[in-house]
Design brief:
Elements: E1 4-6, H1 14-25, H2 33-54, E2 57-61, E3 66-73, H3 80-96, E4 102-108, E5 112-119, H4 138-148, E6 154-161, H5 170-180, E7 183-188, E8 199-204, E9 208-210, E10 215-222, E11 227-235, E12 238-247, E13 252-258, E14 264-273, E15 284-292, E16 296-301, H6 308-316, E17 320-324, H7 333-336, E18 341-345, H8 354-365, E19 370-374, H9 389-393, E20 396-397, E21 409-416, E22 424-426, E23 429-430, H10 431-444, E24 451-457, E25 461-469, H11 473-481, H12 491-502, E26 509-516, H13 525-533, E27 536-543, H14 549-558, E28 563-566, H15 572-584, E29 588-589, E30 596-597, E31 616-617, E32 620-621, E33 626-632, E34 635-643, E35 646-651, H16 661-665, H17 668-677, E36 688-695, E37 698-705, E38 713-718, E39 723-726, E40 729-730, E41 735-741, E42 746-754, E43 757-765, H18 776-787, E44 810-813, H19 815-834, H20 839-842, H21 873-885
Parallel strand pairs: 3-4, 3-6, 6-7, 9-15, 16-17, 16-18, 18-19, 19-35, 21-24, 21-26, 26-27, 27-28
Antiparallel strand pairs: 1-2, 2-44, 4-5, 8-10, 10-13, 11-12, 11-14, 14-15, 20-32, 22-23, 24-25, 29-31, 30-33, 33-34, 34-35, 36-37, 37-41, 38-39, 38-42, 40-41, 42-43
C-alpha cells in the first residue's frame, strides 16, 4: 500500500514551469546578490508547497489487523455435506484468529440476517433466522456483511456458498465493495446434491388471444433420466388439462395443445410429474393468458338467490357472468383483473373478505375495471361498509346530511360475562375481550341524542355503563375495561335488569341486544314478550357451538328482532355494528317511491316508465360524481364517477324481491341492466399493443402505440395492490421499451395507459431454481474474488489473518501543513525584501583568521574648545532685563 497518496497529482506538473517563471521575474536590481538569491529560493519553496497542497496529498495509515465477516449460505441447495464444510471452515478461522482481529457471520437464504457481530472472541456460531430456504439472496448478504465491517481494520469478506443465486444480482453489489477496498474471498461449496432428474424450465404461450379455439404451448424441459412423465395444467387453481410426455434425459422443447379457455384472464400453472424425480421445486411454471371475447361480469352476492333475476338479464345481454359468494371467489388480483365489471349485490361487509375488498379497489383504480354496487338492507352503511376500502371508491357517502331525519336510538347491550367467556380465541384475546371491543365499536357508531347502556351478567347482572346520553369514548372504554369473567350464566337476570330500566329510556327506537355463549334454562320468553309489549325490540347473538341457539332465536322472534349465530368471535364487531345500524333505520328507508330521472341520456329513449321502489339506501352524492337517477334532491339512486383509471357506480336500492320487486317482475329491469353495465365496461383499445418477456433476471416490456402525442404510462400492480412505476424509454415515434431488474417473484398485472386507452397484461415473475445446477455458481464466485483482489479457496491458517494492504485504517491530509509552511516562508520572503536587515546580523559567519590585537594606548590629545554660539535676540533681552532690575554694588 502506498503510504503517500496524491488525490490530484496533475497539479505537480506545473511546479517546474512555475519555478522557472519565478526565477525570471524575481530579478530585482538594487538588492545585493546574496540577498536576491536567498529571496528567490524562499519564494520558490513557498510557491512549490502551495502547488503541492493543490495536489491534495494524504498520508495513509495502514490497518493494524483484519476484520472478517463470513457470509454463510443456508439455502435449500446447500446440503449436509456443504453445511459440514462450512462448520469446518469456521472452526479453522476461530482456531487461527489473532487476538487483535475480528470475526463475524451473516447467514443468507431467501433473506440475509446477522448471526454474529464482528468480535475478537466469537463463541456462538449458531445459524440466524433467514426466512424461507427456497432462495438465495447473495447480493443482500454481501451488502449487509460489508456494513458490519468497522473502521480502523482491513475489511474482508469470506463467502461460503454454492453460488446458486436466485434473488438480486451479486455482480452489481461488488462495485461498491471495490470502491471501498474490501476484498472478497470465496469458497465454492461442494454438495452431494444430484442433478435434477426432471425439470420444467420454461412455458411459452401467447400473452393475449382472441376467439375460442385451442392454444399451443411450447414447453422446455431438462433432466438426467429418460422417462415418461405427466404434464398437469390448472386454470386459476382448478384442474384443467393433463397429458403424457416423453422425457429423453436431456434438454428438449415440445409443443402441447391446450384446450379452449373462456374469455378473461387465466392463471395457468404447469406441473411436471415424473416417476423418477428428485421432488425438487423446479417442476412448476406459471403463465397468465388474457383471452378477449364477450364482456366478463363477476357478480358477488351472499345470499345469491335474490340476485338470480339480475344475473339472468346480464347473461341475456351477451355477457359472460360468473356468480359467486365473496368468500368463495379466488381473491388474487390476477383473477379479478380478468373481469371487465365486478358487481357487489346486497351483501354485508362481514361476508366480504378484506383482501377481496382491497383487490376490487386496485382493479378499479389501477387496472381500469368497472364496479357496480347494488343496495339493499345489508349494503352500504347498513351493511357495515363504513371505513372500509370499498367506501373509498363509492361515488356516494353513507351518512345522511340532514340530522333532523335521523331517529333517536335508545340502545341497551346485555352481554354474558360468565366463566366460559374467558376462553381464548387467538392472539391472547378471550371471548369477553372481543365482546367488549364489539360493544365499544357499536357505541362509536351512535350519534348525539342517542341513549346507550351496557350490562354484564353471570349469576347476576350489573350495569357497567348505566343508561345515559351518549358518553365519551374514554368513559365507554373505562366502563368496559373493568369487567372480568366469572360465574355461571343467568340470561334472565340480564334481561330483567334491562326491563327495569327500559321505561325511562328516551328514544324513537328502543332496542336491546343480548349476547350469550350459554343456555337459558330459566326461559326468559316472558321478559321478551313484556319488552315487546312496551315497544322495545330484542335481538340475540348466540356465540359459539355451546350456545342455546334455538332458545335465543325464539327470544328474538318474540322480541321482533333478529337472531345471529356467530361461530368466529372475530365477527362480533361487525354483527354488533350491523345490528345497531339496522335498528336505527338511518341507512335505509322502506317506503313506496317513484324514482326521478335526472340524466335523460342515461335512460334509453322509448323504454317504459320507471317502476316503483319499496325502499332505498340513504346516501349522499360525493363531489364530482354524476347523478343519473334520484329518489329526491337529498337521496340519489343511480350515481357514477370516474375512480382512478376505472368507473364506479351505485344503485341505492336492491334489485330483488324486497325493494325492487316491481322492477324484477316488470320490464324495467330489462332496460336498466344494460344501462347500468355498459358505461362500466372498459373498451379494448386497438391503438396500443403491449408485450413482455422475462430473461436473465430481467423483465423486458415493449409498447407500441399509434398515439404519438401522449407518452405511455406503465406500472406493475402486485397481488397485494402495491404499484411499481415502470419508466419507459422511447425508441422511435411509436415504440417504447423498459428493462426492469430485481422484480420480486409473483403474479402481477402490467397496465399501460396511453391517453384514455388502457391495456392490461398478466405477468409472472419466477425465481431461478437453485437446483438447476449449471456450474455457473462457482464460476461467478471466482469472478467476484478476482474483481476484488480476493482469494479463491484460501487456506485458513494464521497466515490468512495477515494484513494484505487493503483499504487504509485512516488517512491524514497533509494539505493544512503544507499551506502553513508555505505561508511562513512567504512572510520570511517579504521580510528579506522589505526590511533593512543586515545579513551579517541575521546569519552569523565563521571567521577564517583571528582578530587583530588592539593598538597600544597613548594619552589622548586635548580636545579643542569650541566657541559658544552667539546669543539669540531673546537671550539678549533677558540679559538686559536682569541688568535693569539688579542694583549696582558699591
Amino acid at each position: 500500500m502506498n503510504l503517500l497518496t496524491w488525490h490530484a497529482p496533475w497539479y505537480l506538473l506545473a511546479i517546474p514551469l512555475i519555478l522557472v517563471a519565478l526565477w525570471w521575474w524575481s530579478r530585482q536590481p538594487g538588492l545585493p546578490t546574496p540577498r536576491r538569491q536567498i529571496v528567490l529560493v524562499v519564494r520558490m519553496m513557498s510557491v512549490a508547497l502551495l502547488v503541492m497542497a493543490l495536489a491534495a496529498p494524504s498520508w495513509q495509515i495502514p490497518p493494524p489487523a483484519v476484520a472478517l465477516v463470513v457470509v454463510r449460505d443456508q439455502s435449500a441447495s446447500v446440503d449436509t455435506t456443504a453445511l459440514q464444510q462450512q462448520a469446518t471452515v469456521l472452526s479453522q478461522l476461530q482456531a487461527s484468529q489473532p487476538a487483535t482481529a475480528l470475526l463475524g457471520i451473516v447467514d443468507v437464504a431467501s433473506t440475509a440476517a446477522v448471526a454474529a457481530m464482528p468480535s475478537p472472541d466469537l463463541r456462538d456460531t449458531s445459524p440466524a433466522v433467514v426466512g424461507s430456504r427456497e432462495g438465495t439472496a447473495l447480493a443482500a448478504a454481501v451488502t449487509q456483511a460489508a456494513a458490519l465491517l468497522p473502521a480502523g481494520y482491513e475489511g474482508r469478506l469470506l463467502v461460503l456458498s454454492d453460488g446458486q443465486e436466485t434473488r438480486g444480482r451479486l455482480r452489481d453489489a461488488i462495485t461498491a465493495l471495490v470502491a471501498r477496498g474490501i476484498r472478497v474471498d470465496v469458497m465454492p461449496l461442494t454438495t452431494s446434491q444430484s442433478v435434477a432428474q426432471a425439470a420444467l424450465t420454461q412455458v411459452r404461450l401467447p400473452q393475449q388471444t382472441r376467439g375460442s379455439g385451442t392454444l399451443i404451448a411450447e414447453i422446455d424441459t431438462t433432466g438426467s433420466v429418460a422417462q415418461t412423465a405427466t404434464l398437469r395444467v390448472t386454470d386459476n387453481g382448478m384442474p384443467f388439462f393433463e397429458t403424457t410426455v416423453a422425457l429423453p434425459g436431456t434438454t428438449q422443447r415440445f409443443a402441447v395443445t391446450i384446450p379452449p379457455i373462456t374469455p378473461g384472464m387465466h392463471r395457468l400453472e404447469f406441473t411436471l410429474v415424473a416417476p423418477q424425480d428428485d421432488a425438487l421445486p423446479d417442476n412448476r411454471q406459471r403463465v397468465i393468458v388474457q383471452r378477449d371475447g364477450a364482456p366478463q361480469i363477476l357478480v358477488l352476492a351472499d345470499p345469491i338467490e335474490p340476485i338470480q333475476p339480475f344475473v339472468a338479464l346480464v347473461q341475456a345481454t351477451g355477457s359472460t357472468v360468473t356468480l359467486r359468494r365473496p368468500s368463495d371467489i379466488d381473491s388474487q388480483l390476477a383473477t379479478l383483473a380478468g373481469y371487465d365489471v365486478i358487481v357487489l349485490a346486497d351483501t354485508p361487509a362481514r361476508r366480504v373478505p378484506p383482501v377481496v375488498m382491497q383487490n376490487i379497489v386496485t382493479a378499479v383504480k389501477t387496472l381500469g375495471r368497472g364496479f357496480l354496487w347494488l343496495g339493499g338492507a345489508d349494503s352500504f352503511g347498513a351493511g357495515g361498509f363504513r371505513h372500509t376500502p370499498l367506501a373509498d371508491i363509492a361515488p356516494v357517502g353513507f351518512d345522511p346530511i340532514d340530522p333532523a331525519k335521523r331517529k333517536r336510538l335508545a340502545l341497551l347491550l346485555v352481554i354474558d360475562k360468565s366463566g366460559s367467556m374467558s376462553d381464548l380465541v387467538g392472539g391472547g384475546l378471550s371471548r369477553l375481550d372481543l365482546a367488549k371491543e364489539a360493544a365499544y365499536q357499536a357505541i362509536q357508531g351512535l350519534s348525539d341524542g342517542d341513549t346507550v347502556g351496557v350490562a354484564f351478567f353471570s349469576d347476576s347482572a350489573q350495569w357497567s355503563l348505566p343508561p345515559q346520553s351518549l358518553p365519551t369514548a374514554d368513559r365507554v372504554a373505562q366502563a368496559l375495561g373493568v369487567v372480568q369473567s366469572d360465574g355461571g350464566t343467568s340470561i334472565r337476570s340480564g334481561l330483567e335488569l334491562a326491563q327495569a330500566s327500559v321505561a325511562a329510556l328516551d328514544g324513537d327506537v328502543r332496542h336491546v341486544i343480548l349476547l350469550s355463549d350459554g343456555q337459558d334454562p330459566q326461559s326468559s320468553r316472558d321478559i321478551a314478550q313484556s319488552l315487546a309489549d312496551q315497544g322495545v325490540s330484542l335481538s340475540t347473538i348466540a356465540l359459539g357451538a355451546d350456545a342455546d341457539t334455538q332458545g335465543l332465536a325464539q327470544l328474538a322472534r318474540i322480541g321482533q328482532g333478529v337472531s345471529y349465530r356467530v361461530t368466529n368471535p372475530q365477527d362480533l364487531a361487525n354483527v354488533f355494528l350491523d345490528e345497531t345500524t339496522r335498528v336505527a333505520s338511518r341507512d335505509f328507508v322502506e317506503a313506496d317511491v317513484i324514482p326521478q330521472l335526472v340524466s335523460r341520456d342515461a335512460w334509453p329513449v322509448g323504454n317504459p316508465p320507471l317502476a316503483m321502489l319499496h325502499g332505498y339506501n340513504r346516501t349522499t352524492t360525493r363531489p364530482n360524481a354524476r347523478v343519473l337517477m334520484q329518489i329526491d334532491s337529498d337521496n340519489p339512486l343511480w350515481v357514477s364517477q370516474q375512480i382512478g383509471m376505472g368507473q364506479s357506480a351505485v344503485w341505492a336500492s336492491d334489485l330483488s324481491a324486497r325493494w325492487g320487486r316491481d322492477w324484477v317482475q316488470g320490464v324495467g329491469l330489462t332496460a336498466l341492466v344494460p344501462a347500468l353495465l355498459t358505461p362500466l365496461i372498459p373498451t379494448t383499445p386497438q391503438t396500443v399493443a403491449v408485450a413482455w418477456y422475462a430473461h436473465d433476471d430481467l423483465l423486458d416490456i415493449d409498447v407500441t402505440a399509434d398515439i404519438t402525442t401522449t407518452v405511455p404510462i406503465a406500472q406493475l400492480v402486485g397481488a397485494d395492490g402495491s404499484e411499481i412505476p415502470i419508466p419507459l424509454t422511447q425508441r422511435d415515434a411509436r415504440h417504447w421499451r423498459a428493462i426492469v431488474a430485481d422484480t420480486p417473484s409473483g403474479d402481477y398485472v402490467l397496465t399501460v395507459r396511453v391517453g384514455d386507452a388502457v391495456v392490461s397484461r398478466g405477468v409472472v415473475i419466477t425465481q431461478r431454481s437453485e437446483f438447476l445446477n449449471d456450474g455457473q455458481g462457482s464460476a461467478m464466485l471466482n469472478e467476484i474474488a478476482q474483481q476484488t483482489n480476493g482469494q479463491a479457496n484460501p487456506v485458513v491458517t494464521a497466515q490468512y489473518w495477515q494484513v494484505r494492504g487493503g483499504a487504509p485504517a485512516a488517512s491524514l491530509s497533509l494539505v493544512p501543513y503544507l499551506i502553513l509552511v508555505a505561508m511562513t516562508l512567504f512572510v520570511g520572503e517579504i521580510a528579506l525584501r522589505r526590511l533593512n536587515i543586515r545579513l551579517v546580523s541575521v546569519i552569523p559567519f565563521r571567521r577564517s583568521t583571528p582578530p587583530a590585537p588592539p593598538p597600544p594606548t597613548s594619552p589622548a590629545p586635548p580636545t579643542p574648545s569650541t566657541p559658544p554660539p552667539p546669543p539669540s535676540r531673546i537671550d539678549r533681552l533677558q540679559q538686559a532685563k536682569r541688568r535693569a532690575t539688579t542694583p549696582d554694588k558699591e
